[in-house]
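ok so for the tutorial part 2 we go from a plain amino acid sequence to predicted structure tokens. step 1 is just haveing the sequence, like this:
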Amino acid sequence: MHRDTETGARADAEDRRDHPPRVADALKSGVTVSIATWSGRQLRGTVSDRDATGLLLDLDDGADGQGGYAFLPWSSVEQVDIPEVAHRPVKFLQG
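step 2 — the prediction. this is what the tokens look like for a chain of 95 residues:
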């Protein structure tokens, strides 16, 4: 039983290497992210939009009552943590 668990985990890791996520998928509208800024702020919310200038985030209501939207220029973003990225479906064509 333990052996099957290891095999399944190994297969998942190999699948991730074969089909890595894309930035466009990771930061598309509707994805929940946590962001650390260079100034030390920690923000959590849902991506509303992104473009070449930055990221528009619909903030989760925090303990401090912070809510609404925040625009983060890319130059202010130190790190983006994404709990799960939905991969695009891949179609294999018979040749």
